[in-house]
Design brief:
- By secondary structure, this protein is mainly alpha-helical.
- The chain has one domain: Four Helix Bundle (Hemerythrin (Met), subunit A) (Up-down Bundle).
- About 60% of the residues lie in helices and about 0% in strands.
- It is built from seven helices and no strands.
Length: about 210
């Protein structure tokens, strides 16, 4: 019989993780721009993401008796942080939606407000945090597979997007933004006000300044 404490932590953890995946799905449906055609990498990455979700949910079912309160708290902290980061980025881009994940397209504007003030790819970082949180929650070897595989896809996609920016008319301005803001980890300059940060109008900003 599963101890009541571990059963409770398992149920709470499952609800948080399921909520994260649902939140990302809803965000993609309503706040992202969709292209007419889907490139091969985008399609493949989408399949891998779906498989990774299945792996994590399966791992949780298999290992629910091993979840402890420390792992639960660490996982929930990562999942909640990921949601805050993700929706901060969505709030910034909602008036001019960006492409779906892995679309790897450059935009006419560069977002620098809210979450983008601290990292250049907050949505990808939110996804990575979610995979790590899921792995901690499941505490099962198979749950670590997405942690190893998925970040590599995000790094590739982010690098490709930045390459396209470098070849666009915003190339010089984007290079300055790269110098001031980390890809996935904030730089000290982000906390010193080197890049613009709007608290009351999280709109699109052009960084050619």
């Amino acid at each position: 019989m599963v101890p009541s404490r571990e059963l409770f932590s398992w149920v709470i953890g499952d609800l948080f993780l399921a909520g994260c995946f649902l939140s990302f799905a809803l965000g993609s449906m309503y706040f992202f721009k969709r292209s007419v055609g889907i490139e091969g990498f985008t399609r493949t990455a989408g399949y891998l993401s779906s498989i990774a979700v299945g792996i994590d949910l399966s791992a949780l079912i298999i290992s629910h008796t091993t979840t402890n309160i420390v792992r639960l708290l660490a996982s929930v902290a990562l999942l909640v942080g990921a949601q805050a980061l993700y929706w901060s980025a969505v709030n910034t881009t909602r008036r001019r939606p960006v492409g779906i994940s892995f679309a790897m397209t450059a935009h006419d504007e560069v977002f620098v407000s809210e979450a983008y003030h601290y990292v250049r790819h907050p949505m990808y970082l939110a996804y990575i945090m979610t995979w790590v949180g899921a792995g901690l929650l499941a505490n099962n070897d198979i749950a670590y597979i997405p942690i190893v595989v998925m970040p590599g896809l995000y790094v590739y996609a982010a690098s490709r997007e930045e390459y396209l920016f470098s070849k666009s008319r915003l190339g010089p301005s984007y290079e300055r933004y790269k110098h001031l803001t980390g890809m996935f980890f904030p730089k000290l300059t982000s906390f010193l006000g080197a890049t613009p940060k709007r608290k009351h109008r999280p709109e699109v900003e052009k960084i050619s300044r």
